[in-house]
Records
---
Amino acid sequence: MKTGMDAPFKDAENAALFQVLINTAVDGIIVIDAVGNVRLYNKACERLLGYAPEEVLGRNINMLMPSPYREQHDNYIEAYRTTSERKIIGIGREVLGQNKDGSTFPMYLSVGEGWLGNEQIFIGIIHDTTERQVVASRLQEVQAELAHVSRLNEMGQMTSALAHELNQPLTAIMNYLRAAQRTVAAFDDPAIVRAQGMMDKAAGQTARAGEIIRRLRDFVEKRDARQSHEDLNKTIEEAISLALVGASDANIKAVLKFDQNIPPVLMDRIQIQQVVLNLVRNAVEALQEVSIRELTIETGFEENGYAYASFSDTGPGLPDEVASRLFQPFVTTKEKGMGVGLSICQSIVSGHGGLLSATANENGGTTFCFRLPVIDA
Amino acid sequence: MKSLSIEMIYIVDDDDAVRDSTRALFEAYGLTVRDYPSANHFLDDDRTRERDGLSCCLLLDLHMPGMSGAELLEHLKESEISLPTVVLTGRADAQLRERVMRAGARALLEKPVNSEDLAQTIRQVLMDHAAD
Ligand SMILES: Nc1ncnc2c1ncn2[C@@H]1O[C@H](COP(=O)(O)OP(=O)(O)OP(=O)(O)O)[C@@H](O)[C@H]1O
Ligand SMILES: [Mg+2]
């Protein structure tokens, strides 16, 4: 530790300062010699790696790495010393470390090179990224799942809804054609006979359109049909945690009042989570417009064999212009809304033999509630 | 659709075109048709009581606002009204079929239904009903 004449510290102070720096650093600092033996091991390392200094000093640094790095590290040093080709020195990268208890953890390792007199040394600085990684990877997972769930289901549900809507006019067309044929059946005028033939063909094409819709729907629904007995509370809880991603800074207080004695409910879990997701998202969006932002989610079980979940917000209530057409598709008051959220909820819930309702609540907000029949396993 | 030995058809469906076209179809075959846009309209119609002694059949849509088709079926069952019923719906999976049959329907058909299938089903339903 040589310093120039005008350095702010004296030699003795420098030595003390060195100790303070090394031991107060939040990041781990390790110095090794040219063959990989540990020469310096600071306090932060003890915390990160679990070993005491006396267990590490003088031993090969590879004890702090998981396989296969452990076996290869000596070669790394050797290769660098013969080729001077920099793989990590001066660059730094994300690597895995191994704690004394055998667990591995991700860390950001930067390595520098130096000389003590004419002895070559390497200095490693270890930054623990566990915390950051866990949060980041969980967030990524959640977002991927969210996107997956919504896209698949919105597609599936829209196809089902569309199929249902189209089947009505197709049914009517078919009926009118057959009725018309019957009405003129008693006449054997050649023109009528020709018209009969055309109506037959029209009926055939109507049947074909119905068949296409049926196939499309089968295709979408085959993948989605996964009914099983599920814990309603758990199902809802998972969906809420998804729905509230990114809503944390929206300043919304979520209150859960779960009844712990609800029997398992036969459901397609992903679909019911889609319902929860849409209802919570709507509530979160509605709450942006008010200053008291509370969402109460309650579950329960009714004597008549229905389990229910209600979502009560302290938002502005339903706009008059949508209230009567709430569950129809493409009804929205939002600039970026598609207006399909609630129609999807409605079709999922009724597909489960349940009921979805919306009522004004005493806080001026809206309460959405869905009920699902509990069918014995 | 020939030889349908039936005198009266009730249709309950909230879709105007489906209702009107079904009426047209059966009237073309000389049957008397009564149609209703909702389950409640059906229940409120006193004339439905005239049917005693007539051979009649109910064509019922499942998805309707207000009282659903399934609820109407359950209501009829509770009131011990036995009316042979064919349920028509956009989607008919095994689970729904079971639920509807348990509620008292005789048959379940998927829309769009072709008229031959419908006639065949009605014939079967009336035969089953007579056999009970
Ligand atoms: N909790 C609520 N409070 C007040 N209004 C609501 C609430 N939930 C829904 N609405 C109203 O109902 C409309 C329809 O909701 P829906 O979820 O079907 O569509 P959207 O939210 O507008 O769009 P999308 O869900 O397709 O993105 C909304 O635009 C809004 O006006
Ligand atoms: Mg929405």
---
Amino acid sequence: MSNGYVAHAAGYVDNEGPKIVSSRFVHEDGHTLARYLETGGYVGLRAALAKTPSQVHDEVRDAILLGRGGAGFPAGIKWGFCPPGVWPRYLVVNGDESEPGTYKDRLLMECDPHQLIEGCLIACYALGLSQCFLYVRGEMALAQERIAEALNEAYAAGYVGKNILDTDFSVDIVLHWGAGAYIVGEETALIESLEGSRGMPRLKPPFFPAAIGLYGKPTIVNNVETLSNLPWILENGADAYKRYGSEASPGTRLFAVSGHVKRPGVYEVEQGVTTFRDLIYGDNFCQGMREGHDLKMFIPGGGSAPWFFEDHLDLPLEAKPVGAAGSMLGSGAIVIMDDSTDAVQACLRVVRFFARESCGKCTPCREGTTWEEQILRRIYDGHGRPSDIDMLLDVADNISPGPYPAAADPSQGLEAVPFPPKQTTICPLGPSSVAPIVSALRRFRPEFEAKITARASIPVSAG
Amino acid sequence: MARLNAENLATANEILSRYPVKKSAMIPLLHLAQEQDGYVADDAMAHIAELCDVTPAEVVGTCSFYEMFKRHEVGTYLVNVCTNISCMLLGGEELLHRLEDKLGIKHGGTTEDKMFTLEDYECLAACTEAPCMQVNYRYFHRIELDEAEKVIDDLRSGARTDIPPHGTLGKVRQHIPTGRSAGIVPPEQANEAPVWLPAPTPEGEGS
Ligand SMILES: Cc1cc2nc3c(=O)[nH]c(=O)nc-3n(C[C@H](O)[C@H](O)[C@H](O)COP(=O)(O)O)c2cc1C
Ligand code: SF4
Ligand code: FES
């Protein structure tokens, strides 16, 4: 396909720049063991096995490998939270990718499953994890198929299972698949689901998975992309990894840029040194807004992230500055909206998602997200009441006591409120529903008011 | 409809053998039942309860939580149109409405001939490829309205046969060859440090 797209890896753009996790996406047979071995496959595992487990852990800690699932927590530090002497320990791979705007784990699973498997093996070796469960989102039939094929090949060739590469390192990797529930992406809900239960989050503390996880045992939960970085890090070393990106966010990261840009796609990007402006307007990336339109707003980190605007374009793709400006990089999902977008409609659509996906375990989220959706729906449909905006903010405040994280609005003289939000709920899903509401109301309140006053002019008939 | 048939029971037992705790196999087994019958039948849930050593109510509890499990018959082809934010921006709702008109049903409904069920779906992890849809969880990226209609026509006429009926996900299953497993045991029986870890130093594990 033209314009940098790769036909068999839908949406991936093979642009210029370092490739750490996406190097095999250009190969149509990149998912096979044969191609994997031809292109440096399982070299990282061999390098790991030549070291002691704690040396491997040190290498990952030195690389400052930040989690790619949403929270951005360094993997090496999380790995250190397993209580010593408690066995067995498990690895659960989070391949549940369902955050609105997020599209990169599916590519990694479909196009390079062996890289992920190798990453899992490295983590299991380093931490003494005795079994790994690879939890793939239910709706991803091809990813499940590719991983099953890859595991079958890897078992047959001696890379997975008993006495891996003739060492005394042995671990089973089991493909598991979900059945449609966004909340299962939250790590404790993922564990509940893997135990065969309804996917409802557990309270933290005490249920931090590294201490009390699967079957009550220490469990490391890592995202697909996080683990996919490990083969490269072990092959090339932490120092080489840190040559890319910035000091606080080394390496590269996959960003899915969707919406109203000329070349939407999945890009491997150096973290920290690239800005939103580079990504949206750069020739090497999305090549600007679609013809005849200007940027209105963008979501920097998936549906759960507060919105950004024109004034945030020069922020680097790095957790700290983005957090200080009132949002998050989240799952590497950037949604670009131009001036044709109706702010109320966009807000309603994201809120509707959270209302639909609330697991129902806590009242503020279960009831609150439903109220939010209904109020927004009637405003959007032209049936809004003058008191609706206050009611919306009041419901939001019950889920996430304010001030809720938000970008600065210089026109209103409002400062940025830094991320993360406060919550009255068990997990962050409830508070996430507040992100689009506060964002849209801070900047586009007149759009809401216009829809509400328009109603006043509609003649009311009896009954 | 039915309990798992003999062939699927063998598959179920193989799946069960990969988990240290039987109940963990519940979701994969529910998928297996759905593959067999096109939906998850009550008898199949009772059978799964026996296999996982839990009560039938626990199986219903789990089954009813997850959107993909259908406890009543649906169409041979389940068409999921994404209308979440990235797709909404590029015509996801128009696509849904076009297919509603084409099929003569509202989303959530099934055509009279039981060929199609249409759903208004959440983000499918194809956001850069908007608008997108799935038929039985097979992707259609950046799909035009007319193309979507043609997919329906081709499935209806039998011109297109590459999509298996509702219930079948990945066509390849994992198999751990005999003698290659590291050994899957209940957690309470795996309470020793793995052999490849060096003996702990006095300060702990050195990590
Ligand atoms: C509501 C919710 C949904 C989430 N969905 C996902 C997901 O789909 N994939 C993912 O990797 N992490 C998801 N997370 C984050 C996980 O809880 C967890 O932090 C992550 O998998 C850890 O992996 P990492 O440290 O490698 O990033 C979600 C979190 C929340 C609160
Ligand atoms: S915040 Fe919402 S999704 Fe999270 S546990 Fe509570 S009810 Fe469930
Ligand atoms: S928003 Fe449609 S696939 Fe993500």
---
Amino acid sequence: MTKNSHAVTYPAFLLRIFRGAFDGTWRFYVWMTVLTAIALVGANAWAQQTANGMHVTSMTDHVSWGLYIANFTFGVGLAAGAVMMVIPAYLYDDHEMHDVVLVGELLAIAAICICIGFVVVDMGRPDRLWHIMPGIGRFNWPISMLTWDVLVLNGYLLLNLHITGYLVYTKFLGKRPSKRWYLPFVFVAIGWAISIHTVTAFLYSGLGGRPFWNSALLAPRFIASAFVAGPAFVIVLLQVVRRASSFRIGDGPIRTLTSVLRVTVLLNLFMLGSEVFTAFYTGGAHATAAKYLFFGAHGRHGLVPWIWSAIALNVLSAVLLHSKATREKVAVLDLACFAAFVGVWIEKGMGLIIPGFVPSTLHEIVEYSPTLTEWKITAGIWAFGLIVLTIALKTALPVLTGEVSLERDRELDRTRGPAEPEEDVRLAS
Amino acid sequence: MSAAHDEKQPRRVHLKVLGATLGAGAFAYAMAPLRAWTKNISKEEFLQRHYKELTREELAKVIQRLEAETKRDYGRDVTIKDPKPREGVEFGYALNLSVCIGCRKCAEACHVENNHDRRTNNSYIRVLEMEQGSFDMERGNVQYDGPVPKPGKFYMPVQCHQCDNAPCTKVCPVQATWKEPDGIVVVDYNWCIGCRYCEAACPYHARRFNWQKPEIPAEQVNPDQGYLSNRIRPQGVVEKCTFCLHRTREGKLPACLEACPTGARVFGNLLDPNSEIRWVLEHKRVFILKEELGTRPRFFYYFDV
Ligand code: SF4
Ligand code: SF4
């Protein structure tokens, strides 16, 4: 075994990554502490929910999915949308985009962790999770769309772990990545990104008894909104990365993503409009869910503030993105991204899942409004996702910039000293 | 490198160790309710396989365990049986809307027979009060009160339709719910993971989730139980009407039928040409609910005339 065999360098790599994850400036510690605290509050709420039963949520036999599945749906969109950036980078050979693709893929990994979290907390019996594992449990594949979702989401996670892991590892070794080992995977990941959100849409659109979801437009709408949420998040994330690390990101990628966003917000609004037209022009019982969502029905208005906030936010971001101010002021661009992100979060979440259940299949109207437990758990999972994202970026980026590499580590080991304070200055700054 | 680094920064290391300890402690504290909960789940329960994979002996052991647990948790001696579907029998159910008066006796009987949670007054049957002359469920009402039948109304009880093309069994990711050879759709309460996908898929609001552990006073527990039907369900799983299979597979009638004061309900073997249910299907104006969804129910409605 030579000192350059993978059996030696790979553990060294993992160790280095692990150490890098827990070393940082005071800002990093504060950020991680806050996130950990929120995640723990969520964990505690979940433990209580599992032990005492899900009656602590606002869900009922009428509205049997709520905030968790809403967030799950949105999370899948975020995961798919994050890889959106890969498309211009590879299909059009946009070199500036190449550099930031990795950021998108790391975001996809964090988003999938979020999705898995939301599915697990929605289960009445998390102790039986093994029942859904192919091979040991009884996997109702290919009939159940949920089993498809398990496969595509985990496959997507592995793909992105492989691509990012491989690129970072080779960089750590100071080698050039061999295209053979990642390019095919990148192309598969692009197709796969579409598939995860399509399959997730099929979860709902395949249910004939739920007219609100039973629409062929659902999958395209999901994709369009994913391509709003993903780039919106990444635009802001890139700016954060630019400030908090020495990873250089030009303005090019942000500009490219902004122009993508300009189109997708409109597309998303357009599809929303088509669905609204079909529901209201046709009328009848099938329009009750839409009526309840937008205007309230039979004296109940629980979702009205939600959906109009979503529409206001989406319209605001569309207007901002097409105004000159976005080009001139980053703050305006960030505001537009924030509005788009929250707008889609509501629309794909509460605005999509809940009206599927209101009215119920026997046309009863039972309302749903998340309880504190549900909010705690939801916040906890998002905090957990941000922890994953922070650690992923924190460990991967210094390798990409060359600050961390096998050679440097070995050199430091040999000289034991001189280079040391220099690094600390950087960490403490 | 880290050794050299750490020697110079002992404070930093101490802080990290402190942070990690605090974090681990807080995590253990946050998760404490879960540990208490898992104590109530025996190793046998955790490792139990799917109903269809259990041998006779294994199932007998499982049933023994369940009976003991019921005794422990509910203070009642119960017998859990596992009657099998019979050769040459496929059940069907028909309900006469012309005579149903909306008294909800069937729903109450279901509540008692099937060991439903007393707090929520759960039942597998929901009775809709409908406008005479309209089939718009939108105008129906489940929360009606006062003496029945009311003028200008008719009543439509809805329960599991035991669909032949059942959306609920299709969507279940773990095959915890399936259709038996005699047409009854059942759930293995010890295999269901509680994802509630089936509840979203059912077009007839036939499924119920155990949002908490059912509460039943010992003297009210129905001790004649079936593994796939009315045994007391665990928290966090889905349940549904099983045409009272613990009764009907032994030649008795469903509890809801026996409770009905008007004789609106007709139950029987669809394969038996001399059965009453066959006579109804052949001679009455029969229809099924939401036929357009292609669920092919085994539950029929009909009118006299
Ligand atoms: S009525 Fe609902 S629960 Fe019953 S078989 Fe049909 S889909 Fe399943
Ligand atoms: S709740 Fe249970 S029976 Fe229903 S789909 Fe999920 S695992 Fe299957």
---
Amino acid sequence: MTAQYIVNGLTMGLIYALIAVGYSLVFGILKMINMAHGAVYAFGAHMILMFVTWNLGAVPAVILSVLLTGGLLVIYDRTILATLRKKKAPGIAALITTIGFSYIIQNGLMIAFGTEIKAFPALLGEKMIQVGNVKFAFSQVYILVVSIVLLVGLSLLIHKSKIGLAMRAVEQNSRAADLMGINAKGVISVTFFLSGMSAVIAALLLASYYQTVYPTMGVMIGLKGFSASVLGGIGILYGSAVGGIILGIAESLTVQFLSGAYRDAVAFILLFLILIVRPNGLFGKAKVSKV
Amino acid sequence: MNTYYGNIHALKGIDFEVNDGELVTLIGSNGAGKSTTLLTIAGVLKAASGSRIEFNGHDLTKLSPPQIVKMGVTLSPEGREVFPELTVEENLKLGAYCRKDVKEIKDSFDQVYELFPRLLERKKQQAGTLSGGEQQMLAIGRALMNRPKLLMLDEPSMGLAPNLVLEIFNLIKEIHKQGTTILLVEQNANMALKIADRCYVLEVGRIKFSGDAKEMQNNDEVRKAYLGTVNKKK
Ligand SMILES: Nc1ncnc2c1ncn2[C@@H]1O[C@H](COP(=O)(O)OP(=O)(O)OP(=O)(O)O)[C@@H](O)[C@H]1O
Ligand SMILES: [Mg+2]
């Protein structure tokens, strides 16, 4: 029985991990929380639904949604956030615009698609699989494989590629990055795009599993992803990912041993406890000081 | 060139030149505008309209910092500004960020490691955990990774113990001897004048004196103001 809950928790945890990584990427480079991330997730889900309804096929629908969602974030950054940075606006100004942006997105989705819960096609299949006494949906296997591939891929990109090195350079010292001839604007745009991409993939996986979408679907999962990210160590990719997995499994075990009603409360109590013991999150570290 | 910080007129029409193969030093007291001059050349600060900074026939005021780096104009900034959580190797790799000749970057690594063997020993160490002197070597090495045609060094001896200062100056001399044109900003005017060909003295945003480095060492006014009176005439 417990194995069943752990498998379900792991599934949910990987989705949280993908969302958490989206927050973490942007935070790493801009030291800013993109509160619109949950709404971006909902946007991605609706775009997939729209393209699938147009009979474009699942793969093109997902690719188009990634391009559109990533593009939306890049345009938002280039127009609003970049201007605020240029004018040296305080962090709080950027933060409130991201909250505003989340409502604009949700409002737009309500106008375009309606407020009601809509059916989402089971893009990842509906088959059930039984291993021993653990039962799971075939889509859970997809969630496992796709999210792990994406998380590992992102991590490799950041730690092994040239653009990843540039991202880390801008993150640590943007003035020095300028002197290396790194185009910080471009690097920030790439970061937002990757953040949008991870949200769309999370949306694809979870919407196919639950087979529903609605404009406010990103609110709670956005908050949970944010918490997971802080819990694991925001700005540190693997930390955020592990934070998501821990949160997912903890929630699932709560449902098993207490009741579904405690699920959200336990998630946040866990966050408090971990932060009290490790204020920078599980994998967060104090900065290496500059001599 | 003229440069402003908001309303503050930091560079008030300064005019100077560095010829191919020279080692020119820019000295002057705190706040004279030395760093501002280098940052303006690097394109990080915008020169006021009407300024002209010419490099091999190109007007740098019309170019972005990446374009200027690509032309071979590289600044090793005041205070080192290494990437603290990246390794020594990654810091050096970033110095070559704009280079397209990927195959030859390896040679530059070898050259930099030969010049600074200590960086080779510590290539996997985080830059923020290096000593001040090692960080300075890294900052200079990182600038060299761009294979600069003009290398600008802003106070490379700042905060270093006397024996390390000597080491750094010897290395700068060596880099110059290997054919790199250098514009050197220094508080340590005595040392700078010893290795430089020519010198400009900056005072509150204007060039006060200019001339041959050896003559400058013997100029009474300059010595009194910038070299300290304890310095004996050679
Ligand atoms: N970001 C800034 N905003 C406003 N004023 C500045 C700024 N940076 C420098 N200044 C001013 O411009 C003038 C020149 O500064 P600069 O840093 O170029 O001096 P410097 O010659 O390099 O001095 P030091 O030897 O102390 O490094 C100073 O009066 C300084 O106060
Ligand atoms: Mg200075």
